[in-house]
Amino acid sequence: MNKHLLSETFKLIFIGPSLSIDAACSSSGTALWMAVDNIRNGNVDAAIVSGCHLNLHPYELLERINRGIATRTGNSRPFDAN
C-alpha cells in the first residue's frame, strides 16, 4: 500500500512521519529498528510498522528458486543445511 494513502486515510487519528523503506531483504527489519529508535529517543510515542514482499512475476520466483533463495513449497527454512 502506498504510504501516503495510508497516512491520508488515518491523518485524523495519527500524526507524525510516514516512511517507505526499501532496503532489499532487510526493509522490514530496518523499519522496525527505526521505529524503536524513534520511540526510545522520544521523537514519537508509538509507531506502526508493516512489511511485505510479493513474488508476483513467475520468472522472478523461478530465479529465486534456482538460486536457492526461495523454495518450490513456499516454506521458509532459513536454518536448514541445504
Task: Report what the structure shows.
The chain has helices at residues 3-9, 27-40, 58-67. It has 3 helices and no strands. With 82 residues, the chain is mainly alpha-helical. The N and C termini lie far apart (34 Å). The mean pLDDT is 82.
Q: Which band does the percent of strand residues land in?
A: under 5%
Mean pLDDT: 82
Quantity of strands, as a count: 0
The main sheet comes to: none
Distance between the termini: 34 Å
Structural class: mainly alpha
Helix content: 25-40%
Q: Order of helices and strands, N to C?
A: HHH
Low-confidence stretches: none
What's the gyration radius in Å?
A: 17 Å
Organism: Nephila pilipes
Protein name: Fatty acid synthase
InterPro entries: Ketoacyl_synth_AS (IPR018201), Ketoacyl_synth_N (IPR014030), PKS_NRPS_Biosynth_Enz (IPR050091), Thiolase-like (IPR016039)
GO molecular function: 3-oxoacyl-[acyl-carrier-protein] synthase activity; fatty acid synthase activity; oxidoreductase activity
Compact overview of the structure:
The chain is mainly α.
